[in-house]
């Protein structure tokens, strides 16, 4: 693979970052993941807007313009021959030359790293036909989940717990309601209505979430943004998740109980089709 580090395109085994980089020492970094279908970037503008918001929330200066990011994404697609896959982008507060809790003085250059993950057939995942099984796990993350930081240890632990319990993923719960999935937003469908938690500091403001809710409303589907419990999800007609890497993916089992008839439902299927069709149209 050819990867991007601070303006350079390098073979992955020659790409290095300092041991004093705050991304490494303190998870002082934010990231984005953009999907690529047919060599084009999905929801690119949305991801760059959220990146700017994450950086702003942490008082980091955005080191590159949206056009520069676009160029780097395209170069990586080209240099790695990516048809379908993901592009990972991380911006850290950089290397102050030592370890210190205080932010480094102004002028410390951020570190920008980007790499590709080739996923042939990303949009044709067979899981979309069968659905995911999930378990609920208490949400023990920090209080600013709307900032897309690389502090991913707890979601990683939750995912491992899901695997240990023989299922695909976990939904995180706090004060009795579902916040979101380990790396996706969570939804249920009841009586034709799509229900998903409202935006706040409690969840990541998913770029796929925003697009899917817009398409749903345009298709005259009913949307309600509010929190819901695991018990309500188990009694729902359908459940699903959204993310840049999975698009729309049905959930057919929650904590050992099947959702609806236990198969993939029409709303999730339709939203997946609409999302893929529309986001391919606006891909850059
Ligand atoms: N929530 C969390 C915690 C996530 O990690 C992600 C994916 N990065 C999402 C939601 C979905 O966001 P998006 O649709 O922008 O990929």
UniProtKB/TrEMBL annotation:
Gene Ontology MF: a single term: L-valine-2-oxoglutarate transaminase activity
Keyword Ubl conjugation appears in the UniProt entry: no
Catalytic activity: L-isoleucine + 2-oxoglutarate = (S)-3-methyl-2-oxopentanoate + L-glutamate; L-valine + 2-oxoglutarate = 3-methyl-2-oxobutanoate + L-glutamate; L-leucine + 2-oxoglutarate = 4-methyl-2-oxopentanoate + L-glutamate
Pathway(s): Amino-acid biosynthesis; L-valine biosynthesis; L-valine from pyruvate: step 4/4; Amino-acid biosynthesis; L-leucine biosynthesis; L-leucine from 3-methyl-2-oxobutanoate: step 4/4; Amino-acid biosynthesis; L-isoleucine biosynthesis; L-isoleucine from 2-oxobutanoate: step 4/4
Family assignment from sequence similarity: Belongs to the class-IV pyridoxal-phosphate-dependent aminotransferase family.
Stated role: Acts on leucine, isoleucine and valine.
Protein's name according to its UniProt entry: Probable branched-chain-amino-acid aminotransferase
Organism: Paracoccus onubensis
Taxonomy of the source species: Bacteria, Pseudomonadati, Pseudomonadota, Alphaproteobacteria, Rhodobacterales
């Amino acid at each position: 693979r050819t990867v991007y580090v601070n303006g350079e395109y390098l073979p992955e085994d020659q790409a290095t970052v300092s041991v004093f980089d705050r991304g490494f020492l303190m998870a002082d970094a934010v990231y984005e993941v953009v999907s690529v279908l047919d060599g084009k970037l999905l929801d690119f503008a949305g991801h760059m807007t959220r990146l700017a918001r994450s950086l702003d929330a942490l008082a980091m200066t955005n080191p590159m313009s949206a056009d520069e990011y676009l160029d780097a994404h395209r170069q990586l697609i080209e240099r790695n021959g990516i048809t379908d896959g993901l592009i990972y982008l991380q911006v850290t507060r950089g290397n102050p030359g030592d370890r210190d809790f205080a932010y480094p003085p102004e002028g410390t250059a951020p570190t920008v790293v980007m790499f590709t993950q080739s996923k042939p057939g990303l949009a044709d995942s067979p899981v979309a036909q069968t659905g995911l099984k999930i378990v609920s796990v208490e949400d023990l993350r920090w209080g600013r989940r709307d900032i897309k930081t690389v502090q991913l240890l707890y979601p990683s632990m939750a995912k491992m717990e899901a695997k240990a319990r023989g299922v695909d993923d976990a939904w995180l719960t706090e004060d009795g309601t579902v916040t979101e999935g380990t790396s996706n937003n969570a939804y249920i469908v009841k009586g034709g209505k799509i229900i998903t938690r409202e935006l706040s500091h409690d969840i990541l403001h998913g770029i796929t979430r925003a697009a899917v809710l817009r398409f749903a409303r345009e298709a005259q589907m009913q949307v309600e943004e509010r929190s819901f419990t695991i018990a309500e999800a188990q009694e729902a007609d359908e459940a699903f998740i959204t993310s840049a890497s999975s698009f729309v993916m049905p959930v057919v089992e929650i904590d050992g109980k099947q959702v609806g008839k236990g198969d993939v439902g029409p709303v999730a299927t339709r939203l997946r089709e609409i999302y893929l069709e529309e986001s391919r149209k606006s891909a850059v």
